[in-house]
């Protein structure tokens, strides 16, 4: 199969450029050297990675590597010591950190200054070592390594796999407590007492300068105020992975960060990151705004995925997106760690309340209005709840969203928002975020797969700059978001990044400030979103809203200024024009969640192709994992390349030739995009369609390496699948697309969209009809009985209905529809769709039911009922009143009616019974 | 004259820190005043619809930060702006001098057809006046700018400022339907060249 594709490694990466630029080709090999330094033998899979690189990237990296090895060995060892120290002090770290909650920003300032003036080079070295170290742990776990030597030191930064991630959660917990002492409430007095220029300095100070000023013990971190060393060490262990970013930013950032309403900000964005290429570290996080708590793993993934992987042809500006898995169970671990720490340090009521506030901030729904700081009693409430239902948002949690916790809670708030507002474009934002407690159970079962991810939207700039040691300026600005919406975020990052390169950090503050004033995202609403002197117009489609292309193609006077926040803004035609006849096969594959790997020459093409693929089944939501840009550094690398189990249902977009070997066993391969050597013409789909921004500047032409002279035939765009297409193709459409030269690419895309929407519609029609038949009749809803349930979805019954009135009849398109349905019913897309429909139907039923209960003539009904019936109804009414699923439908008027009902029933009951029921309440 | 036509006007406020730019906007948009106004980060955005002589103006107001740190960002906000209000406080001579720098910058780098207004704010603090009305008026005339002394605190002249500014906006920049392109990001202020482009479409 693969033999036919004629992949040529050289067309991905060329010896001279990767040696020159040494992008990821160089850094990818760090892990194995680092392994060596920490005592573990470098293992075969890593070697294999190296080989992959060597074939493509040539041997020039060896020198680079050797250098790295020499420089980092000793430092890595001391970092190791550091980390071990920390581990011994697990229990106390949090306590001390929490108890020291009174430490105020003045200390932060002082510390910043001190660190900035630190000149001991070993400080920086130490930090670097930590970074490399953490990377090694990630890489080793993503290969099939059993080497324990290389891993032992990775504990502090998380071992990478989810199975062993608990240790990293513990670290998170410690760090949380440590950062509790950020006094966000103090900023008024602080601003008054310190000139703003102080903050400017701090903000301008390079992150690296906040590195430990001396190697050795934890107290050398330079914290003022006598911080316990364990806490300091934990900060290092935690941040080592990415150059101490959090430490630097959390404490170094001044006024602007504190004035930002992070909760409001995180309704749209998790954070903005700047990723740079450090000569010693490879990709590293230079800056993050606002300070956001991401795990090491998340940060490492963001760093790696924000740069092109093993090809250096992306000159100029490139916009692409990626998707990463959120570290699992983080919240629970944080809660537990915090509770444990606070309990241990219970002597200080102050610290307890602060921790309590933290918990509130993390676990309550983001709220625009600041709430009063949580009190110690709030803490007790939280800790009690935490043990039992770590993820539920009970009423007691909602009423005291800790505003003091907001500055730190950015990530969590974003995360919770994501869980609360399932993110798919067509998916179900709950109608009201703040009250949809049922979303908890929903997200864990249904759309959980979606909300467990973060999205990165990258603007990568690579230009020649003789003034730099490397000869090139290479930086990425990344928007990390809880939602995919590539049209919106692609535009945003294209707006923000070039201005950031021109103006620096104040620009990020300005942009964030704008974003924090945006109204909360809701389905089916129109927005005007001001940002940096522009206004973005956006429509977030409602759940069942037909995709925007209908309007685009059918209504010429449709307002073109509206950005539709969907996934369907990929210019399908330009991305897939070389493989058009196979596009319908791909539609089938996506529909039934078959694994697909997309090979393309650049991250931009890769992300467009993957997003384009999942949009083929709009308005149906793709329920499996997709990685619009996936690299060997992703912490899920191992999972996706493992050969000893079935291939996961996912769509991966890759550019690194190593994957030709690593994903050879994947059944379905798509190769798209012109090879990068044709630099004179823009890479197809290199930018989000119609961005109309500086990002839209075509990739600049650039005299390249010998590879650019290789014959074109080595890269062949094709689709190779181990899947027999079931539905007949539309030849008419293909002809039209092929021969109608007058049509623009976007017109052709509209045609394609129309075609696939009709196809999806024809396919989903029978399912919708069958599902509708499962609903109880409205007349069966009675206020005196329990809510009627939906009938069960019986596949056999459904398939029978298809035989009678399937798409073969309604659409006239021939094919094995039954076979396609059978495959679909087995796949996650069906499950997701079905759960969504159930949710929606149950909501509707419940609303109707509650209305009926309210309107019911209770006085009449109670006349001839015995106690049993009365008590039964009473209990049911009370249940409804407190049932979170019902609460969002209960208006104040309804609530009063319920109260009246309850009073009426109570009045009909004998005194003794009434008393016991009344007290019970 | 049809009141149906809606003009979207990108407006930018510039001026030294603390002269009351945000307070002016707050007074104009929400008719309120906040004594403990925090300093602006970057630039904040507000919009307000105003009807002047049968014409509806939708002001999209970029209220820039006066702090030096954000000074470099100003071009983003006055780029494509139809109008700019440069604010000084009558109680601080230095803020008036800073205003002249802004005018210079706008003349050099701003849109060529931008309408300028000069607002001498804090007119309620007459006793502490450092910049005379005559001096400011003379300067404003010399650069063909509207001149108004305002008080965000007392609301004195604030709505007048915006009404007078609206009347100065050139007639031809009435917003027209946006060209049917895939450019989805909107520069809100219609300016002359853009409209010509519209016609071509």
Description of the structure:
- The complex is a heterodimer of chains A (about 900) and B (about 200).
- In chain A, strands 2-1-5-4-3 form a 5-stranded antiparallel sheet.
- Chain A has about 900 residues and is α/β, with parallel strands linked by helices.
- Helices cover about 50% and strands about 10% of the residues of chain A.
- In chain A, helix 6 crosses helix 18.
- Chain B is globular, with a radius of gyration of 17 Å.
- Chain B has a single domain, classed as Rossmann fold.
- Chain B is an alpha/beta fold and about 200 residues long.
- In chain B, a hairpin with a 2-residue loop joins strand 2 (about 45-50) and strand 3.
- In chain B, about 30% of the residues lie in helices and about 25% in strands.
- Chain B has helices at about 20-30, 75-80, 95-110, 135-140, 160-170, 190-200; strands spanning about 5-15, 45-50, 55-65, 85-90, 115-120, 145-150, 185.
- The interface of A and B includes residues 259, 502, 535, 537 and 746 of A.
- Strand 7 of chain A pairs antiparallel with strand 7 of chain B, so a sheet runs across the interface.
- Chain B: It comes from Capsaspora owczarzaki (strain ATCC 30864).
- Chain B: Keywords: Nucleotide-binding.
- Chain B: InterPro entries: P-loop_NTPase (IPR027417), Small_GTP-bd (IPR005225), Small_GTPase (IPR001806).
């Amino acid at each position: 199969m693969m033999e036919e594709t004629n992949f040529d490694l050289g067309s991905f990466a060329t010896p001279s450029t990767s040696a020159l630029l040494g992008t990821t080709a160089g850094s990818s090999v760090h892990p194995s050297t680092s392994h060596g330094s920490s005592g573990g033998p470098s293992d075969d899979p890593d070697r294999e990675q190296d080989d992959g690189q060597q074939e493509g990237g040539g041997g020039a990296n060896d020198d680079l590597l050797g250098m790295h090895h020499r420089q980092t060995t000793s430092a890595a060892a001391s970092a190791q010591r550091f980390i071990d120290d920390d581990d011994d002090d697990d229990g106390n770290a949090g306590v001390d950190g929490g108890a020291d909650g009174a430490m105020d920003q003045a200390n932060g300032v002082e510390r910043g200054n001190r660190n900035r003036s630190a000149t001991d080079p070993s400080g920086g070295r130490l930090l670097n070592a930590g970074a490399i170290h953490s990377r090694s742990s990630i890489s080793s776990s993503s290969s099939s390594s059993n080497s324990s030597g290389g891993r032992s030191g990775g504990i502090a930064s998380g071992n990478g796999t989810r199975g062993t991630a608990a240790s990293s959660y513990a670290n998170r917990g410690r760090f949380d407590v440590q950062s509790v002492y950020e006094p966000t409430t103090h900023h008024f007095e602080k601003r008054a007492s310190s000139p703003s220029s102080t903050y400017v300095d701090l903000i301008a100070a390079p992150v690296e300068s906040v590195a430990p000023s001396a190697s050795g013990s934890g107290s050398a971190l330079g914290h003022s105020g006598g911080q316990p060393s364990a806490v300091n060490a934990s900060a290092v262990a935690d941040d080592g992975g990415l150059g101490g970013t959090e430490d630097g930013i959390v404490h170094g950032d001044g006024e602007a960060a504190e004035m930002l309403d992070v909760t409001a900000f995180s309704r749209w964005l998790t954070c903005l990151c700047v990723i740079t290429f450090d000569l010693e570290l490879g990709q590293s996080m230079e800056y993050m705004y606002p300070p956001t708590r991401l795990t090491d793993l998340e940060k490492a993934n963001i760093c790696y995925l924000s740069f092109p992987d093993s090809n250096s042809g992306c000159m100029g500006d490139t916009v692409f997106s990626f998707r990463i898995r959120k570290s699992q169970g983080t919240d629970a671990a944080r809660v537990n760690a915090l509770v444990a720490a606070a309990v241990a340090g219970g002597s200080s009521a102050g610290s307890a309340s602060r921790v309590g506030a933290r918990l509130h901030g993390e676990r309550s729904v983001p709220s625009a209005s600041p709430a009063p700081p949580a009190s110690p009693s709030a803490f007790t409430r939280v800790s009690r709840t935490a043990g039992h239902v770590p993820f539920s948002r009970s009423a007691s949690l909602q009423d005291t969203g800790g505003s003091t916790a907001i500055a730190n809670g950015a990530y969590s708030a974003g995360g919770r928002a994501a869980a609360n507002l399932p993110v798919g474009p067509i998916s179900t934002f709950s109608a009201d975020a703040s009250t949809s407690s049922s979303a908890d159970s929903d997200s864990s079962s249904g759309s959980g797969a979606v909300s467990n991810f973060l999205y990165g939207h990258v603007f990568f700039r690579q230009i020649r700059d003789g003034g730099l040691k490397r000869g090139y300026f290479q930086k990425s600005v990344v928007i990390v978001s809880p939602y995919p919406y590539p049209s919106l975020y692609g535009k945003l990052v294209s707006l923000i990044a070039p201005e950031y390169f021109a103006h620096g950090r104040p620009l990020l503050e300005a942009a964030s400030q704008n974003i924090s004033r945006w109204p909360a995202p809701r389905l089916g609403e129109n927005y005007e979103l001001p940002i940096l002197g522009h206004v973005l117009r956006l429509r977030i489609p409602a759940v069942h809203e037909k995709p925007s292309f209908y309007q685009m193609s059918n209504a010429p006077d449709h307002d073109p200024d509206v950005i539709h926040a969907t996934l369907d803004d990929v210019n399908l035609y330009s991305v897939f024009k070389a493989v058009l006849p196979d596009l319908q096969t791909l539609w089938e594959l996506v529909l039934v969640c078959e694994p697909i790997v997309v090979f393309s020459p650049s991250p931009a093409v890769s992300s467009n192709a993957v997003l384009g693929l999942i949009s083929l089944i709009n308005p149906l939501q793709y329920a499996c994992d997709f990685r619009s840009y996936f690299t060997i550094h992703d912490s899920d690398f191992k999972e996706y390349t493992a050969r000893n189990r079935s291939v996961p249902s996912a769509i991966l977009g890759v550019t690194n030739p190593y994957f030709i070997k690593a994903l050879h066993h994947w059944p379905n391969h798509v190769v798209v995009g012109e090879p990068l050597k044709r630099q004179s013409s823009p890479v197809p789909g290199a930018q989000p369609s119609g961005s109309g921004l500086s990002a839209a500047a075509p990739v600049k032409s650039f005299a390249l390496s010998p590879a650019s002279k290789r014959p074109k035939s080595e890269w062949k765009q094709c689709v190779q699948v181990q899947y027999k297409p079931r539905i007949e193709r539309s030849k008419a459409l293909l002809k039209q697309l092929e021969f109608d030269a007058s049509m623009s690419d976007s017109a052709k895309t509209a045609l394609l969209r129309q075609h696939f929407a009709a196809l999806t519609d024809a396919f989903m029609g029978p399912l919708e009809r069958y599902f509708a038949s499962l609903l109880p009749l409205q007349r069966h809803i009675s206020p005196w009985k329990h809510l009627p349930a939906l009938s069960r979805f019986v596949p056999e019954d459904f398939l029978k209905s298809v035989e009678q009135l399937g798409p073969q009849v309604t659409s006239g398109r021939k094919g094995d529809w039954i076979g396609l349905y059978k495959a679909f019913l087995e796949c996650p897309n069906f499950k997701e769709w079905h759960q969504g429909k159930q949710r929606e139907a149950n909501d509707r039923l419940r609303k109707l039911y509650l209305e009926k209960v309210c309107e019911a003539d209770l006085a009449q009904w109670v006349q001839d009922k015995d106690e049993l019936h009365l008590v039964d109804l009473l209990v049911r009414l009370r249940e409804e009143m407190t049932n979170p699923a019902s609460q969002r439908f209960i208006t104040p008027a309804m609530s009063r009616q319920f109260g009246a009902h309850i009073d009426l029933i109570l009045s009909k009951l004998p005194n003794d019974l009434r008393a016991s029921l009344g007290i019970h309440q | 004259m049809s009141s149906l036509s809606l003009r979207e006007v990108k407006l930018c406020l510039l001026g030294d820190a603390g002269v009351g730019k945000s307070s002016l906007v707050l007074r104009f948009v929400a008719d309120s005043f906040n004594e403990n106004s925090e300093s602006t980060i970057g630039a904040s955005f507000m919009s307000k619809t105003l009807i002047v002589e049968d014409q509806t103006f939708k002001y999209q107001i970029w209220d820039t930060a006066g702090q030096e740190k954000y000074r470099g960002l100003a071009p983003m906000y006055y780029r494509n702006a139809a109008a700019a209000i440069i604010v000084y406080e009558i109680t601080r001579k230095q803020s008036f001098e800073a205003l002249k720098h802004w005018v210079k910058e706008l003349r050099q780098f701003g849109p060529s057809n931008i309408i300028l207004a000069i607002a001498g704010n804090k007119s309620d603090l007459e006793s502490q006046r450092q910049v005379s009305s005559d001096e400011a008026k003379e300067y404003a005339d010399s650069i063909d700018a509207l001149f108004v002394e305002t008080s965000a605190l007392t609301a004195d002249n604030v709505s007048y400022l915006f009404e007078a500014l609206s009347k100065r906006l050139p007639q031809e920049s009435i917003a027209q339907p946006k060209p049917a392109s895939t450019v989805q990001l909107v520069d809100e202020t219609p300016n002359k060249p853009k409209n010509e482009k519209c016609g071509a479409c």
